[in-house]
Every structure is written in C-alpha cells, then in structure tokens.
Amino acid sequence: MKIIYIFFFINISFIYSNDDCQGKVNIIFDDIINSIGNNFPTPPKLAFSNTVNNPAWISPSKNTIYIENKLINFLCDDDNFTDKIAYIISHEIAHHYLNHGWMKDIDFSYSSTIGNYIYDQSYSVDQRKNDEIQADNFGGFYSKISGYNSLDYGSEVLDEVYRLYGLNEVIKGYPSLDERTEIVNSNINKTEKLAKIFEFGNIALITENYFESQSCFNHILNANFNSREIYNNLGIVYLLEAIKSSNEIISRFSYPIFLEQTSRAKNLSRSGSITSTKDLLIKAKSFFELSMAKDNEYKKPYANLLIADLILEKLNNNLDKNFVTNRTDLLNKIDRVHVTDIKILNFLLIEKSPPKKLLKNISELSQFNLNLNTSKSSDDYDFPKFKFDQSKWVWLQKPYSKYRISELEIKEKKFKDYRLIQYGKRNIVEVFDKDYLNLILSYKSEHKNFINKLMLVNSTKYEINNNNGVVLKYDKKNILKSVILYNF
Length: 488
Prior knowledge:
Elements: E1 2-5, H1 21-36, E2 45-49, E3 56-59, E4 64-68, H2 69-75, H3 81-98, H4 125-145, H5 154-165, H6 177-206, H7 210-222, H8 230-245, H9 248-251, H10 277-294, H11 300-315, H12 323-326, H13 328-331, H14 336-349, H15 364-371, E5 401-405, E6 408-414, E7 418-423, E8 426-431, H16 434-446, E9 453-457, E10 460-465, E11 470-474, E12 480-485
Parallel strand pairs: 1-9, 2-4
Antiparallel strand pairs: 3-4, 5-6, 6-7, 7-8, 8-12, 9-10, 10-11, 11-12
Helix pairs in contact: 1-3, 1-4, 3-4, 4-6, 5-6, 6-7, 8-10, 8-11, 10-11, 11-14, 14-15
C-alpha cells in the first residue's frame, strides 16, 4: 500500500463543548485563517472584548480582530451559532487580507461589519460598498471550504445584531442594512460556485487528473483567492508527476509531500508535455525555490525541494547514504519527523537498511516504506463494477450543472445512487448506493493488498487502487461514504 500524505490546511474535526463559546470562536477563527493559508500580510490575532457598544472590529496597528463577549453570549445558544460567528469572523479577516484602503491608518475602534465606523473620507460610499462585496465573497468562500456556511446566515445575523445594539439601519458613509443584506445574498451563488470548483479540483487531484485539478485551482486563484503557496503547489504538481513516471524503485515508496489547499497552473500544458522525469523534477525545484524566495520562513518547500533533489540524485546514480545528512542548508528548516522520513528514504533508495538509531518512534509513512520488501504487492484484481448505463453520458440530458473554467468545461449530473462528473471528455463517477458500498467493503476484506495508496485530506481518508481506478472515500469517523470510479 502506498501512502501519500497531502496536507490541506483546513481543520473542521474539533468537537465543540456546549459551554465554551469562546473556545468555539477560537476554533472557527483558526479554521478560516488556516484555510486561507497566507502570511502576506501576517495573519491577524483574535481577542475578546468586554466593551458593549461595538460588536466586532479590527485594529490594524495591533493586527488584532476583536469580538465582544456581549455578541458571543447573545448568539451562543443559537442552533446556527458557528455559521453566524463565522460570518462575522470571515468578513473581518477578508478586509485584513484584501488590504482595503479605508482600513489604513486606523488605530482603534474600527468595525468593518457593523457598529461604530471610522473611515477614510477620501473613500466613496461606492468604494466601501465594493469592499463589502469583496469581503463577503472572499470571507464566504474561505469559510465555506473550512466547513462553515457563513453567507447563508449573513443576512439573519446582521438583522439580529442591529437589533441587539440598537443600530440605525442607515449609517452615514456606509452601505445601509438593506444594502448589506443585498450584498450578502448576491454573493451566495458565486461562493457556492467557487466552493464547487474547489471540490472538483480535489476530486481531480485524488484521481490523478492533474491538468483538470490545476485548471480548477487556477480558476479560483484568478478570482483573487490566492495565497503564498502558489509556487510550492506548482512544484508539487510536477513532483507528483515525476514520482509517478519514475522507475519502480522510486515510485513504489511514499514521500512526505506537502501540498496546500490550492495550486496554480499558469502556462502549464497537459500532462506528458514534459517528457523526462528529470525535467519534471527540475521544474518542480524551480517553483520550490521561488516559494522559498518569497518567504524564507515558509518551511514546506524546503522538505519538497529535498525530496526532489533526493530523487534526482538517484536518477543520476550519485546517491549515497549521507546525501540527506549533508544537506544542512535544508534540514534546519524541516521538522524532525519529516527529516527522519527523508533520511530513511535515502537508505531505501540505495537499497540499504537504515541504522537502528533512525528507527525509534518513526512515522506511519516510514513504517510502511520499511515493510514494503516483506509485503506482497497488490494485484490487478477483478474489481466489482457498478451497473449504470454509460450511454446516458454521451449526451447528458438536462438538468445538469455546467462550469466553464478557461478551456475546460465541467459538467455534473446527479442520478439516484451516483453522480457523474465530466472534465471535458474524462468521466468520473461517485457512487453512494449503500448496497454497492457494502459490497466494496466485503471485497476489500477479502483482498488485503487491494489498496495501494492512502491519502489523508482534511478529515477525509481516501483509499486508492490505481490499477482499477478506484477510490474509497471515508469520513472522519472512518465510515465509507462513497466510491469514486475513474479510468474506465
């Protein structure tokens, strides 16, 4: 079984305590900050205020977003507390990252969402209204992919807070309550579409349709939902393709690769246009180096660069047991666990046993790599097919959803027990039929080596067999939720 850990920095796996409303708010804040994954500018901090007349505001000089305990206590018992607070938080965070001009030079008592307003008089009401549209759209998207439907409750929470604080529906120099409600509602459809494209990008990635995945993420980035991880992600795309195209000695191992939630495919042609594995690795390195130059404290590309160099040395027949140990320029930027993972891979790639001192408290990934030589490789099993009429797919009958992403058109058609996703001419089927899922679980238990890759994305686990083009999708409780079929 091949294991690849793909880390998307979105965290929705916490179980909330009913009596810890501030704890809930902290978790929501961290989820949204992590989903954005951007250190330019530096992420804001969160603080709670005992004031009673300004629900939420941001202090640029302190780089801190403040939320009143009065507001938290008022909403705490609401069934939709998390989504409502997510709206307040995501909106304030959005103004921060979008660097809206009317926030500049304001040192205190600023509230971008509701409350007492201090603003630059040089900014028109129309400009501020446009900023509000951007903040709702930006914040709404990132809260959505963090697991919160903030915009769905935006209008409702605005009404509630205006009443709680006795605010005038019309505030000089700022969009009125009616206009704010209209802004929220107008952004819901756009946010839902972007979240859907994000989902399509993830599915394409899991099923090794890299070009389609890149196109989806590129579309999102072109909508200004970008982050510092652009160059790192581009490098990862080439690195994954290089590993896949390498000889069996290289491709059979699992690598501690770090992939962020999005990746960009600017000027990237379809898979196969770069013919040699070495070219792919060199291209990957160039993007990792650009990422490091953009932020030398951003640690993930250092590990990815070391892996690319490790594979290049193997392909060039120059790899020795001390290669990783000697790369002190990179090792001090990588955490201990992943340094050990890469050092063990160094020994395995030269077909030598790692020293015992490396084998203490090793990771699951390293344990798997060490067991490869004693485990039986997976066979090309006769996997049970899901019965459906493929003739329906040639010309899809409406209703279906259609998304145009640059040169790529994606269609989604939902049937009773499955859905079809078409990336141009590529078909992927996600099956939800319970009888079929039970059949797959039974089949898997009979064929112990059927799974040859494991991916962990957020709180979702994917077990994959590349030979048959099958992905088993589990939720955070390890319950099989669907089976994704491709390459048929």
